[in-house]
Amino acid sequence: MTQPTPDTLLAYCRQGFEGELAAELSDQVASLGVASYCRAAEGSGYVSCHCIDGDAAAIWRQLPWRELVFARQLTWRLAQVTELPANNRAEPLADCVAGHVDAVSQLWLEHPDTNAGKQLSRFCRRFTAPLQRALRQRGVVTDEPGACRLHLFFTDSTSADIAVSEPSNSAPWPMGTPRLRRPRQAPSRSTLKLDEAIQTFMDAGERERWIRPGMTAVDLGAAPGGWTWQLVQRHIAVTAVDNGPLDADLMTSGLVEHVLADGFRYRPPRPVDWLVCDIVEQPRRVFDLVISWLERGDCSAAIANLKLPMKQRRDTVRDALARLQASPVAHSRRCGAKQLYHDREEVTLFVAPTG
Ligand SMILES: C[S@@+](CC[C@H](N)C(=O)[O-])C[C@H]1O[C@@H](n2cnc3c(N)ncnc32)[C@H](O)[C@@H]1O
User: Which residues line ligand 1 at a C-beta cut-off of 6 Å?
Assistant: First the structure.
């Protein structure tokens, strides 16, 4: 059975953050002058946002995915298919897709990032090739450069949402989850958070301009050194501040100075390019610290982890971003926050020069 859903956005999130994502989407859509309501089942890992009096396609094009804190992925949902026959899913599904799109750049079969959803990952992998064949037979080209990406989001093996995303305004990874491997030499798993932040907040050109060999950084709460390791890999000299021990191999790079000090009191002798901070503390305290570094000119750019409280998680992030936007720091900088795949009850704050 096919149900067209032309006025709906579909966004994925970390399980348990559906309420935060729904509130964020409603606010963003309202700021574009359109009323909406969201469906967000708790624990489902996704939210649908229904635009009541506006064009969802236009809204979707104007909503910057990177600026949505709780959205791992942002798509425009075209239709829902249910009751696919278990012995022949590809043909009816391909018929339905062909009724909505002509050419797509990629085909991604996805499912919610939940325990129930994970049961579908094998099915999605196996079903990709037959579906691709069925789409080609119907003239749906699946490697058209510049076209939208096609998402088939399965909530069970007989029901899927048909959605599209713009490659330039969406996560470049299936399910919005980067498959980053922890490098063997990296001192901690935490290293992946900074790697993901660098890949999420900056495009290739920005990474080249803003993260260059020879730059300097301070890493507050550095031990055992996963974040410092990421910076050293990019040939950045790091002052690693932590009373805890740093990984011994990291120290042999010649690019790391270990300072045993309280990160809330330490100040650099001269300004650095980057401040990164992974101290587990009250989010407000960490935020105050980061903004004070930026306002005093101790650093030009910053990435910091903000641990979210049990309640008012969205308010905490919203207040921090509002304070950042109101600060002179924001004038010549791009500021944002995002709950990354490797973040749990946290979000990552990002501030970097524009241009
Ligand atoms: C989550 S760990 C950091 C992990 C690190 N980013 C990595 O990738 O290996 C938090 C660190 O913050 C340090 N820390 C906690 N309070 C601190 C403070 N006031 N000043 C400096 N470091 C602090 C702890 O010693 C701990 O090593």
Answer: 187-188, 190-191, 220-227, 241-244, 262-264, 278-280
